[in-house]
Amino acid sequence: MTLSEFLASVEQLAADAPAQIAATATLDEWTAVRTALVGRQAGRITDLMTGLAALPKEAKREAGQRVNAVKATIEAALDARQAALEAAAQGASTPLDRSMPGRAHWRGAVHPVSQVIDEVVEIFRELGFTIALGPEAEGAWYNFGALNFPADHPAMDMHDTLYLGADQVLRTHTSPVQVRTLQQYPPPVRILAPGNVYRRDFFDPSHAPMFAQVEGLVVDEGVTFADLKATLSHFARRFFGAETTTRFRPSFFPFTEPSAEMDVRCGVCRGAGCGVCKQSGWIEILGAGMVHPAVLEAAGLDSETYTGWAFGMGPARTALSRHGIPDIRILYDSDVRVLDQFVS
User: Fold this and answer.
1) What is the pTM of this model?
2) How far apart are CA 291 and CA 201, in angstroms?
3) pLDDT for the residue 52
4) For the chain, does the N or the C end have fewer beta carbons within 10 angstroms?
């Protein structure tokens, strides 16, 4: 076949196709015409594409461009006719009922734990704190060694910690951010480090194997425990309300000395005792203490010159207390009926 004969066939198809498409009155007829024109097995376009191989090499480019142009025109006409036939079929079989109510769409909401983190960050930002972040897959030295954990500490056992390798873990707290920050920036330092942490905990009303944590750190000359207590008490009153009752209890953490835990009156039972507060009437919201001199030394600071305090809190438990949620597992269920209550 010569180029002129081939192009004549193409032009004939371009002339015939619009009328054939326009003549279809049903979707079945449209399907038959579409198959005849552009079907992969026996369509006229397919036949022309196959015929390109028989043309001289120098003619193939021009012929191919013309076939592709006609194919695009035909497909556009087929799409337009299909839309018209579908619209006509829908209008004939299912008339629009304008009295039907619209479908409700959930607008979405910020998760209650995210709300807590945002508010905690804002309160401490007013006190001069900045945000610091660190990796969730952390080196064992940053997660334990630099924080004054002894080599035989139970937290380093595999039944408590998720190991990724001999020297790498999924961080069990956000405290490694303290060391990384002190290594990078000289005092004074005032940071807040929010992030996810991982532990081998049972999933129960007050524990989860993966949860958010917010870490705070202050390091400077002359920092005392009085600064810690005043700042955290101010935070509790700002967050829970001016009438909030708090208490500090002595505790122990390898990376702080002295150490304390801060509780607030249970928001679920109002102090009467329930499953969330383990019948105590109080919910622990954070652990805190003066930064251990060994941690300062591990970060390269002179512990005779600088002192500091730090705290770590679980926003999920704080959300439980604030909103009266009886089980921490509810926060992980993605139940729209629960989340809808937090749409602002």
Assistant:
1) 0.63
2) 26
3) 81
4) C
Q: Within a domain: residue 317? A: yes
Number of structural domains found in the chain:
2
Question: Is the peptide bond between 293 and the residue preceding it cis, with omega within 30 degrees of 0?
Answer: no
Packed helices 27-38 and 57-93: angle between N→C axes, nearest 10 degrees: 170
Please give the residue range of the domain that contains residue 75.
3-93
Partners of 217 in the β-ladder: 191, 310
In a domain, 40, yes or no: yes
Neighbours of 118 (CB within 10 A): 13
One domain, residues 47 and 190: no
**Packed helices 315-323 and 112-126: angle between N→C axes, nearest 10 degrees:** 100
What distances in angstroms separate CA 84 from CA 14, 34, 284, 300, 326, one per listed residue?
Answer: 21, 15, 66, 75, 56
- Report yes or no on 105 lying in a domain: no
**Chain segment 232-290, per-residue pLDDT in tens:** 999 988 988 888 888 999 999 999 999 999 988 876 777 778 876 778 888 788 999 99
Q: Which among 18, 279, 255, 48 has a CA at the least distance from the CA of 142? A: 255
Strands 137-139 and 168-170: antiparallel
Based on the fold, state whether residues 200 and 287 are members of the same structural domain.
yes
Rounded to a whole number of angstroms, the CA Rg of the chain reads: 35
Tell the burial category of 230 from Cβ atoms under 10 Å away from its Cβ (0-12, 13-18, 19+).
Answer: exposed
| Whether residue 116 is found in the same domain as residue 85 | no
pLDDT of 179-211, one tens digit each? 999 999 999 999 999 999 998 888 887 778 899
Strands, DSSP E only, in the chain?
A: 130-131, 137-139, 163-165, 168-170, 189-198, 210-220, 246-253, 256-265, 282-291, 307-313
Coil, strand, or helix at residue 152?
coil
